[in-house]
Amino acid sequence: MRLYHDSAFDFSRPVPSYWEDTAPPLSFEPQTCAGARQADVAIIGAGYTGLTAALLLCRDHGMNVAVLDAGRPGWGASGRNGGFCSPAAAKLPYSAMIRRHGIDETRIFFSALRHSVEHVREFLSTHEVDAEATEGGDLRLAHKPSRVAELRHEAEFMNATFGVDQRFMGADELAERGHAGPHFHAGLIDPEAFGLHPLKYLRGLAEAAYRAGATLFAGSEVTGWQVAGGRHILKTAHGEVSARKVLLATNGYTPEGTAPWVDGRLMPALSRIMVTRAITGEEQSAQGWNVTLPAHDTRDLLHYFRLLPDGRFLFGGRGGVDASPAGMARSQANLRATFERLFPHWAHIQSDYAWSGFVCLTRPLTPYAGPLGDADGAYGALAWHGNGVAMSGYTGRLMAGVIAGRKGASEAIPAIMRQPLPRFALAPLRRLMLGAIYVAADLRDNWG
Ligand SMILES: Cc1cc2nc3c(=O)[nH]c(=O)nc-3n(C[C@H](O)[C@H](O)[C@H](O)COP(=O)(O)OP(=O)(O)OC[C@H]3O[C@@H](n4cnc5c(N)ncnc54)[C@H](O)[C@@H]3O)c2cc1C
């Protein structure tokens, strides 16, 4: 059962995207799961989370690992995101996190976020994956004058609380540095972050996991999950995998009804992207935007954008709550109109690509990593809250330690991520509730 329209779950082909057109293909062909198979660990979902866990379980712990994906590796968000690799994975503001969990736990969580960015850099360098990294940090932009003071305060708060080095810039400095726009009133640079080609990173991971000995199954949607005799039996259309342990790594694509421990506890949300044709140097100067630093704004329903290394411009935002073809077309038209409003000198530049995908939220607005309910040997790692390029793989690494039974591995996961996942009130109505939340957020963004 799915909360959104079926057309968003056509696993039979990759979602056409700029990334698909520019990433080298895999050097191997993943199999379809057929017949009865055995593994030490079965992983559901071949995104950054699942593949990183698979790589380390095989390489560092000598385990026999089967990764099952309904599509091909990277079919989900990992193959189609914006490529912002930043220290983020929660929607809960830090001030609220400190009130709820205390300053020490919040600092531990934040430190994991920073390590997660370093983890990706290290993976790309060790495995010699050229994912077109654009270094220099990322930029948060005040989308209206009333948010300037908020950004200035945020810089002071982040630097004092977490010992980071975020830097506030006024509108003049922004323009001098190539980030001009009629709706950008100040900026905050976080030097830790970087941009990357998400599918090149994903395929690098898939290659590494495969070489380490993981079996990758594509076109193998898990439609049933039984626990019997200390083993987990995962059913697909043509076969099954029996494993002692399972990691659920399906994030925004988690089906309802297959893993009862997460039913009603996750909120998938649509994110949408368009990519323009290459913008010439002259056109970049006309707009005053000519650097590849990834940027996003201070809206609750934020827009994110980046000039890609080949001169194309990626522009993204929330994708509404209607995933039907008509709903998708409407949200694409809205996104295009917003792009033209924020970048008026580029209003004539056509978009060559447009696509969308699911991110995943929870009720406490923090991610989850740990055991699933009381099912012995069942684990989950999900809910990166619209981020996850960095934190999903890093958590996959932490979960490999937990699943392999390494001493102290559970405690290495920040306690904030180990809190039990509560159910949403009126869970079947989650999509409608999200729609109402969007209306309120939109009012705040525009009038607040
Ligand atoms: C449009 C968009 C833009 C984004 N931009 C950014 C960004 O710039 N920066 C950032 O940090 N984050 C971004 N994100 C979020 C980020 O991409 C995700 O948090 C991250 O990729 C999650 O990785 P994952 O491995 O946990 O899940 P996913 O990559 O989503 O993988 C889950 C996999 O599970 C599979 N699956 C689901 N159900 C089953 C089943 N029953 N059986 C078998 N397989 C199944 C799916 O096919 C899918 O491949 C974006 C997401 C989207 C959609």
Helix content: 25-40%
* Ligands (ions, cofactors included): flavin-adenine dinucleotide
Report the top-level CATH class of one domain.
Alpha Beta
Largest sheet: 8 strands, mixed
Sequence of secondary-structure elements: HEHEEHHEHEHEEHEEEEEHEEEHEEEHH
Cα-based radius of gyration, to the nearest Å: 21 Å
Number of helices: 11
Could you tell me the number of beta strands? 18
Strand content: 15-25%
Structure description:
This protein is an alpha/beta fold and 448 residues long. The protein has a domain at 6-81 and 199-267 and 363-426: FAD/NAD(P)-binding domain, CATH 3.50.50. It has helices spanning 18-22, 48-61, 94-101, 103-126, 148-162, 171-176, 198-211, 281-287, 325-342, 391-403, 430-447; strands spanning 35-44, 65-68, 84-85, 138-141, 167-170, 186-190, 194-195, 215-217, 224-228, 231-235, 239-248, 267-276, 295-297, 304-307, 313-318, 351-361, 368-371, 378-382. The strands form 3 sheets. Strands 1, 2, 8, 9, 10, 11, 17 and 18 form an 8-stranded mixed sheet that branches. An 8-stranded mixed sheet has the order 5-6-4-13-14-15-12-16, with helices on both faces. Strand 13 and strand 14 (304-307) form a beta hairpin. Helix 2 packs parallel to helix 7, helix 3 crosses helix 4 and helix 4 packs across helix 10 (391-403). The radius of gyration is 21 Å and the shape is globular. The mean pLDDT is 97. Flavin-adenine dinucleotide (FAD) is lined by residues 11, 44-50, 68-71, 75-78, 80-84, 221-222, 249-253, 255, 258, 271, 273, 316, 356-359, 382, 384, 386-389, 392. Flavin-adenine dinucleotide binds at residues 11, 44-50, 68-71, 75-78, 80-84, 221-222, 249-253, 255, 258, 271, 273, 316, 356-359, 382, 384, 386-389, 392.
